[in-house]
Amino acid sequence: MGYIFEPEILHDVARRAVGQPLDGIITQIANELSERYPGHILPAKDREWIFNVAGGAMGQMMVLHSSITEYIMIFGTPIGTEGFSGRFAAEDHFMILEGEQWSYREGSFEKEVYRPGDRNVLPRGAAKGYRMPDKCFALEYARGLIPAMLPFGLADSLSSTLDATSVARTFKVYAKAVVGNLARGKI
User: Fold this and answer.
1) DSSP 8-state code for residue 147
2) Could you tell me if 149 and 142 are in contact, meaning their C-beta atoms sit under 8 angstroms apart?
3) Closest listed residue to residue 103, CA positions, set 77, 85, 124
4) 3-state secondary structure of 44
5) Is the four-CA dihedral 109, 113, 118, 124 of positive or negative sign?
6) Residue ranges per domain, the chain?
7) Pairwise CA distance, residues 116 & 96, whole Å
8) What is the CA radius of gyration of the chain?
9) Which is nearest to 62 in space by CA: 94, 98, 36, 26?
10) Contacts for 120 with CB less than 8 Å, ≥ 6 apart
């Protein structure tokens, strides 16, 4: 079994949740995805916020699904951040739930602006600079070889912030979700 999630469906779920307080948005998204994809969304008891520093940008994430080929998480910050998107053998969909994200591609002289309900797509092999100028949270979905994304997602925590706690928590959540999905035949 390869990909089970469809970006358009996830975007629709995110758009329908926008406009309420953030905790309500997250609950609605998690509940809808749990109903649509039974057994593939982490139960509430296994979800936790974890600091993440990647590409120079600091935020926090809550993993909803993780497997060898896909992940879904809520990512964001209450105070803003900016950095490098990374360049991956995976495509990434960043669906704004609250706040605003700005991004640009190499050679661009104007920013792209994404607001609640919008989706910023990073194709395989592409990269962007991005900024969340203030509070911003998004539903993030990636599909491709997810383990190859982990070095980027953990390098700053290992080499700059030296935050072994967040690295260990990230591995714990990722490993538990991957093993659970493999047990159900989902790679």
Assistant:
1) G
2) yes
3) 85
4) helix
5) positive
6) 7-181
7) 5
8) 15
9) 26
10) 93, 94, 95, 96, 101, 103, 112, 114, 130
Surface-to-core class of residue 15, CB atoms within 10 Å of its CB (0-12 exposed, 13-18 middle, 19+ buried): middle
Beta-bridge mates of residue 120:
94
Question: What was the pLDDT predicted at 152?
Answer: 93
C-alpha to C-alpha distance for 20 and 41, rounded to whole angstroms: 22
Would you say the C-alpha torsion 142, 145, 146, 148 has a positive or negative sign?
negative
Residue 156 DSSP SS3:
helix
Per-residue pLDDT, 1: 47
The rounded average pLDDT for each run of 10 residues, N- to C-terminus, in the chain (187 residues) is 91 98 98 96 95 97 97 99 97 98 98 98 98 99 95 92 95 92 88
pLDDT at 19: 97
The residue to which tokens 């959540």 are assigned: 173
CATH number of 7-181: 2.60.120.10
Helix (H, G, I), strand (E, B) or coil at 132: strand
Q: What is the pLDDT of residues 54-97, one digit of tens each?
A: 999 999 999 999 999 999 999 999 999 999 999 999 999 999 99
In the block, tokens 């951040």 appear at 81
Residue 57 pairs in a beta bridge with 54
Give the torsion through C-alpha atoms of 8, 12, 13, 15, to 10 deg.
130
pLDDT at 117: 98
Tokens (6 digits) for 69 = 């080929």
Collapse the DSSP code of 26 into the 3-class scheme (helix H, G, I; strand E, B; otherwise coil) and give the result. Answer: helix
